[in-house]
Amino acid sequence: MNGIRVLVVDDDFRVAGLHRDAVAARPGFVALEPARTVGEARAAVAAHAPDLVLADVYLPDGDGIELVRSLDVDAFVLSAATDASTVRRAFSAGALAYLVKPFDTRVLAERLDRFARYRNLLSSPRPLSQDDIDRAAAAMRGERDGPSLARSATEQTVLAALGADEASATEVAERIGVSRATAQRHLTALAERGLVQVSLRYGSTGRPEHRFRAGA
Question: Start and end of every Response regulatory domain (predicted)?
Answer without folding.
Answer: 5-116
